[in-house]
Each structure stands twice: as C-alpha cells, then as structure tokens.
Design goal:
Layout: E1 31-32, E2 38-45, E3 53-54, H1 55-63, H2 68-75, E4 80-83, E5 87-91, E6 100-103, E7 109-112, E8 118-120, E9 128-133, E10 139-145, E11 149-156, E12 159-170, E13 173-186, E14 189-197, H3 198-203, H4 206-209, H5 216-236, E15 244-245, H6 261-269, E16 273-277, E17 280-281, E18 286-287, E19 314-319, H7 321-327, E20 334-342, E21 352-359, E22 363-367, H8 368-375, E23 382-384
Helix pairs in contact: 1-5, 2-5, 5-6, 7-8
C-alpha cells in the first residue's frame, strides 16, 4: 500500500506531495495537438484508491490533536483493538535469480528447513556464501567464495541463512535484512524469502509508507494499519511459500536499511496492536490521499464518508491520444471522453466509476479503475475540464 506517494503510489507518495506530476498542465478544454488530434484535460483529487486510511488525513488528524486510536477508529469504523504476533514470510521480488547470495559475517549459519539441523559457516578468506538448487530442485547446495566458489555441503530440500542481520546481494545491488533468508522452493524454481518477526518487518515497512518525520500519532496509526494489513494477508493469502510481497502488491518493505528511530518508536509504542473485526485481523487498506472522501471497500468497515482531515491534494492531467488508445483499445482517434457514472460521494458527484471514450472507430465504456491503471492517473476522483 502506499502513502505520500500511496503509501509510492502509496510509497512514492510518502516522499512527495500530491501536486502536479510530469506531463501535467493547467486545466482547460480539449485542445488540438500538433498532429491535429484532440487532447483532453482532467482536474483530479487524491492519490491512490482512497479506501481506508488516508495517510495525509492521518497526518492532518494528528496535527489537530487526535491520538492514533482515534485516527484508526475514524478510518476503520466498527473495528476493535486486537493483537498479532509471530513471524511473517516476505517475498523479496528484486531477487530474480536462482541463487541466494549473502556476505560473510560472524555468527552466520545455514539451516535445513525440514530437519532444522544447523551448520555454522566459517572459512578463512570467505567473502560471500550462496545457496543454489540442484538440477531437480530437491537439494540445496551451499557454496563459499574465497578465490572462487567452492561447494561446502548439500542439504535435502530447502535451506536458509540465519544471522542477526545479513547483506543480501541482488542483481541491482545489495540490502541488509534481519531474521532468516530462505532459498524457498516455488514451482520447480527458487525464490528468496525473508522470515522475520512481525515487529521487525514493520521496521522496514512504516518508514517506506509514511515519512518518518511526520507526527508521532500519525506514525503510530500507520504502524497499527500496517501491522493489521500484514496479519490479514498472512491469515487469508494462499501463496504457499510466502505471506506478503515486498512491493505495493502488499506493503513496501526495504529491510533493515530503511529503519528510522521515529518509526521504530511508533512501532514499539503500539507493539502487537492491530485492528480486528469479528475476532480476526481487519483488512486495513490505506492510500496516500482520498481527496476529502473515503471510498467504500470490500469490508463493512471500509465505508464512504467525508474526511475532514485530508488536505485534498489536487492534480491536473493532459490525456493524450496514445494514453486513450491504451485505455480503450480499438477506438481509433478519441473525439470525446466522458464520465458516465460516479459513486455519488463528494464533489462532482464523487469518484468516476465508468468512463466513456468515443472514437472514430467505436465507443468504449471503461471501468474507471481500469482507466486509471492503464494511463497511470493518480486516482479515479477526476473530472473533465
């Protein structure tokens, strides 16, 4: 999920205000491009899907003096205080190779996932260690790098590196993670999965979802929402070898390198606390800004209501012919763009539900969420201007 950025649309959103974006111009009527085809201007509000907690709204509420429980009560009405503990398994999506490679350090060991047998890893001149699968994926092969890669041992099934923290080498660089780094079997291949306590996981999530220098009560609200969201996914997903992604498909997670004192304090102050509904973790969706109105979601506590705390981030967008062809394939040249259905909540009749794109070849009605996704719009809360 993501904040100031969306928490980037909800993570990038965390660092930058939701104002004008690249390619955006002042609002105006449809105009002719240099090629003679019309472009269309949109005026918009908010950043993200608008369901559940607005991160800008949480900051506004905290600025007004609300405590974190008051904030989450407002955004998730009908939920109650609950608790969640234990480990969570995070898929590290940046590792696209079969090998799991970590830097050498004292206290490093490798462990069999099935038998739990553990083997200390120490070798003169060692700089890196790796786990690779055998050709049939049935065995984990443990290697050490000194002057070259040398095979150390083979372990039946999956294996994992264990240390207080480890530097993981990725195709794009390296990152430090706590807990365990597992070479996990995944459909005949291998994925790298970080297994950490829920509290440790949050230390790498909250500062990616909300700026660490924001109000303490907003950070606590984010910690509770993020902990609840993770606990919900852990309890309800069927992903097999992992519980959550490290991207906005779940929540953005950067490991130990992203930890900040202010967010660590917010996590510690709310330790184990979640929002629960019916005795189970609530689906605590959140986004950067809702534009002044929350959006009805899939759960009874995700309601549409006016939000007095969200500062209403605004944006403008020029829709090009290329964007409209991507949003509504087969239309030819777009001649009109019309919002034909809205949700009825807020100004302009609320967020767009259906967008009609009229072209020289045909007219297509597109769900607003699809329209937004295909073009990259900041939200579905927009109007033609």
């Amino acid at each position: 999920m993501r904040l100031i950025a969306r928490a980037a649309l909800t993570a990038l959103a965390t660092v930058a205000p939701l104002a004008v974006v690249p390619g955006v111009v002042a609002p105006g009527p449809a105009v002719a491009s240099a090629a003679g085809a019309a472009e269309f201007q949109l005026d918009g509000r908010g950043w993200g899907h608008g369901k559940g907690m607005s991160q800008w709204g949480a900051q506004g509420a905290a600025t007004d003096g609300l405590g974190f429980r008051q904030i989450v009560n407002f955004y998730y009405p009908g939920t109650r205080v609950g608790s969640a503990t234990g480990d969570i398994r995070v898929l590290l999506t940046a590792e696209t190779r079969q090998a799991l490679v970590v830097g050498h350090r004292s206290g490093l060991s490798v462990r069999s996932v099935s038998s739990r047998a553990s083997y200390p890893l120490s070798r003169a001149g060692a700089s890196r260690w790796r786990i690779t699968p055998s050709s049939d994926n049935a065995t984990s092969r443990v290697w050490v790098y000194t002057d070259a890669w040398h095979l150390v041992r083979s372990i039946a099934g999956q294996a994992e590196f264990v240390a207080p923290s480890m530097r993981l080498y990725l195709p794009s660089g390296s990152k430090v993670y706590r807990g365990k780094l597992r070479s996990a079997s995944a459909g005949g291949q291998r994925d790298v999965v970080n297994i950490v306590s829920l509290e440790t996981y949050l230390r790498g999530v909250v500062p990616r979802e909300m700026p660490a220098l924001w109000k303490a009560e907003a950070l606590k609200a984010q910690a509770v929402a993020a902990r609840s969201y993770a606990a919900y996914e852990r309890a309800n997903s069927s992903r097999g070898h992992f519980d959550v992604y490290d991207t906005t498909q779940s929540q953005v997670y950067g490991g130990a390198g992203d930890e900040q004192p202010q967010t660590d304090a917010a996590i510690a102050a709310t330790r184990g606390e979640i929002r629960a509904y019916g005795g189970t973790p609530a689906f605590t969706q959140f986004s950067s800004s809702n534009g002044g109105w929350t959006v009805k979601g899939s759960q009874p506590y995700l309601v549409a209501r006016a939000d007095p705390y969200d500062p209403v981030r605004t944006w403008h967008w020029t829709l090009t012919q290329a964007e409209l062809r991507a949003a509504a394939p087969g239309i030819g040249t777009a001649t009109a763009v019309t919002v034909v259905a809205r949700d009825g909540h807020g100004d302009w009749g609320g967020r767009a539900v259906t967008v009609r794109v009229t072209g020289t070849l045909k007219t297509v009605d597109v769900p607003a969420d699809t329209f937004r996704s295909r073009i990259g719009l900041l939200s579905t809360y927009f109007r033609r201007v």
